[in-house]
Amino acid sequence: MNPLRKRLVFDIYKSTPVRGPSGSLKDGWVKQDAQIVVSLYDQSAQNQLTFGSSGARVKQYDYLGLTKKKTLIAGKYRLERDGVKYLVKGVNNEGRLAQLFLEVIANG
Predict the structure, then answer these.
(1) Structurally, how many domains does the chain consist of?
(2) 100 occurs within a structural domain
(3) Cα separations in angstroms, 44 against 19, 41, 63, 64, 95
(4) Is 2 a member of any domain?
(5) In whole angstroms, what is the distance from residue 59 CA to residue 25 CA?
(6) Is residue 1, in this structure, part of any structural domain at all?
(7) What are 55-96's pLDDT values in tens digits?
(8) Could you tell me the CATH number of the domain that includes residue 70?
(9) Are residues 104 and 79 in contact, defined by beta-carbon separation less than 8 angstroms?
(10) What is the DSSP string of 24-53?
């Protein structure tokens, strides 16, 4: 896996509480100023099957991303490029590059 070969630039969105017109707080996606460079790999065929005390469970994600940025948190960030939105479902910060487990959002 050569991470330089599949480098793509993404916009970062962070889930933050936003005040609506009625004054109530709801979660909204706010675009961050900085962009992120991620090497994207299709992993949909290699979803992991794990067995726990509650039975079998499938950890599903569509893409694996590699990046140098290690400040992303699972569930709080979303990446977007060319109208396609990717939700960060998991993060592994061990090693030289951070691994991002990404799911494509259909109606995000």
Answers:
(1) 1
(2) yes
(3) 36, 9, 6, 9, 23
(4) no
(5) 31
(6) no
(7) 555 567 888 899 999 999 999 999 999 999 999 999 999 989
(8) 2.40.10
(9) no
(10) -EEEEEEEEEEEEEEEEEE-GGG-EEEEET
